[in-house]
Amino acid sequence: MTTGVLILLGALGLGAVAAISGGLLDLLALARIRKRGVRAVAVCDSHVWGPGKTFHLGFTDTGGARHSIWTTEPCVEGQEYDVLYDPSRPSSCALAPVRLWDPSRPRQVGMLLGSAGVVVLTLIAATMN
After folding, report:
1. pLDDT number for residue 9
2. Closest Cα partner for 40 from 72, 56, 63, 70?
3. What distance in Å separates the CA atoms of residue 37 and residue 35, rounded to the nearest whole number?
4. Whose CA is closest to 95, among 63, 66, 58, 64?
5. Distance CA 33, CA 106 (A)
6. Is 58 in contact with 42 (CB distance < 8 Å)?
7. 3-state secondary structure (DSSP) of residue 86
8. How many CB atoms lie within 10 A of CB 104?
9. Residues near 31 by Cβ (< 8 Å), separated by ≥ 6?
10. What is the structure's pLDDT at 48?
11. What integer pLDDT is reported at residue 50 of this predicted model?
12. Does residue 92 contact residue 1 with C-beta atoms inside 8 Å?
């Protein structure tokens, strides 16, 4: 019984660490975009009515390649919006102004949940001793 619980706690701990790492990488990517980002104009193409009401914007980088942004921030179809993107990786982009903390980004929410999970797992492990 105890071995099974420890294996389960270990697996949950690894999942929490992975979520925290993903969120930190997302924050680093946003910081890079904010510091060295190139400005482009994106046009709101459409919206998808779902649980998060997702909006799609498309923009063209300096090399002529077309990229997409999916966001939960409302946009009007056909209207233009400013976008910042990383010139070394144009798929890494964000709507301007870039906010480092954005609760609509799933990796950052996962980072919070992973952090809370680590705290809970630590408390569980401490009470098992």
Report:
1. 83
2. 63
3. 6
4. 58
5. 18
6. yes
7. strand
8. 12
9. 100
10. 72
11. 63
12. no
Q: Nearest-CA neighbor of 21 among 118, 126, 125, 111?
A: 111
Helices 2-36, 106-128: crossing angle, 10 deg rounding: 150
Give yes or no for a contact between 78 and 42, defined as CB atoms under 8 angstroms apart: no
pLDDT of 49: 64
- The tokens of 28 are what? 């680093």
Give the global pTM.
Answer: 0.71
Question: What's CA 70's distance to the chain center, in Å?
Answer: 11
Amino acid occupying residue 22: G
| DSSP-assigned letters across all residues of 22-68 | HHHHHHHHHHHHHHHPEEEEEEEEEEE-SSS-EEEEEEE-TTS-EEE
Question: Which portions of the chain are predicted below pLDDT 50?
Answer: none
**Token duo for residue 25:** 């990488």
